[in-house]
Amino acid sequence: MHFAAVAYVGESTLHPLKYYHNITSNTLTVLEAMSAHGVPTLIYSSTCATYGEPEKMPITEETPQLPINPYGKAKKMAEDIILDFHKNSNMAVMILRYFNVIGSDPEGRLGEAPRPELREHGRISGACYDAARGILPDLKVRGTDYKTTDGTCIRDYIDVTDLVDAHVKALEKSRPGKVGIYNVGTGRGRSVKEFVEACKAATGVPIKVDFLPRRPGDYAEVFSDPTKIKLELNWTAKHTDLQESLQVAWRWQKSHLNGYGSSLVKSS
């Protein structure tokens, strides 16, 4: 299972070579090593960013891939390399295109802790928690003039626990010589404003919000059609209560104030 990648849209527009090297070039290296040593199965972590900003919603696996930022382009290139390699290989391949991942391990073992220098490029969930913890003075929402119901971006938020389950199902269903490509999402879009309100409720903190201009490389609306993965892998997202997913992640944040650093603080 190949998860390793840099994964921030904003950062990819500033440092594209870092993204092409880390995602595309390194995936090529992984494939070469797998081929050399006869590793029979690859489950690849891809992204809905490979679709860019499609004209029609929801996004199916047949939606044209027209990425609009280096992150999405690098992931699509990696997919293309995998598929070209597979034409003359008996490897079992599964490509999972994630939508926007949120949440934490419910048992509290794992959570999201990006490096401090990545905070300005980070996901909205991390920014919400940083604002709730007082690390940041406010939550910066970038873009309020999109053609959506409330002017903010719409995304399909998938809980990491459901994502883990999708990988297990993909591994079980993988077959030599076969390729499976699947969207992993809930099939429902939520606006950034809706997300922020859920985060306020989950943390119990009246987070101050600062509305700013759009971020380069972002798109207005992205959500999945998860029909294929349901039919072929018998997978459906179960953790679809946004506030509940954010509460689980917030518990981890409060008990790991230094992320994976040595100083851990127990929370009540």
TrEMBL record:
GO molecular function: UDP-glucose 4-epimerase activity
NAD as UniProt keyword: yes
Record-linked InterPro entries: Epimerase_deHydtase, NAD(P)-bd_dom_sf, UDP_G4E
Pfam annotation, one family: Epimerase
UniProt keywords, alphabetically: Isomerase, NAD
Keyword Isomerase: yes
Family: Belongs to the NAD(P)-dependent epimerase/dehydratase family.
Protein name: UDP-glucose 4-epimerase
Gene name of the record: LOC102581884
